[in-house]
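Holo prediction — 0O2.
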Amino acid sequence: ARQFRELNMRYTCAIREVKTKLEVLNDDLAIRNQRNPIQMIKSRVKKPESIIEKLHRRGFPISVKSVRENLYDVAGIRVICSFVDDIYTVAEMLARQDDINVLMVKDYIRCPKVNGYRSYHIIIDYTVNTIKGPKTLSAEIQIRTMAMNFWATIEHSLQYKYKEHIPDYVQQKLIDASRAIIEIDKAMSDVRDEIMDAQNSHQKKENLIKDILNNIQNLYKVANKREVT
Ligand code: 0O2
């Protein structure tokens, strides 16, 4: 039990560090793009009973070593972005960091699951420094838009309600809703692009006026009044 408690604490530490990395990335990107790509970060360490159930279901031995070697999602981090392209930016920048080792990528956005599930999953290895030396642990990072998260949350609760046997007509409604969410995500990205274009052209006009005023001021220094007027 003490070993499991220690392992849980290590996964919690790994989550804390990776979460900080994501927050730093968010702040950095906010300065570059004048908006935050990440809306929210949630995290959890898998409960002991779920860990044991999953090891058992997959036929793995029940031990701390087995958890570390066979389960990738004991540490789970969920990143909610506003727009689909933010997902790829965040994923790419995180993967580029020296101490993040990407083990696996599952792109359920480009290839949604048959039930309509969409999200971008990255399995990473991350090393935490402990008083017993460095320990490398896996973590699962799920990156999705707010709309994708809405769908996944509702679908997840239905899985619980129907014990994974969701009736066909509900399944069909979920597939339709998933398609509608693709359209919503696209529409919101288009609106965002419009706003960015409007902001850019406003900025250009402002700069032009500043330039003209500067030139007039400089003229005052060197030219006669008639020329300035
Ligand atoms: P929970 O309660 O969120 O922890 P794995 O199960 O990870 O060993 P798998 O299924 O190939 O292997 O991995 P995948 O497909 O990447 O799924 C891992 C996690 O993604 C799930 O964890 C869910 O959180 C989420 N997920 C995947 N498919 C679906 C889906 O169809 N609907 C919803 N709502 N979420 C999904 P857990 O452990 O299943 O659940």
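READOUT: Residues 68 and 198 are 50 Å apart (CA to CA).
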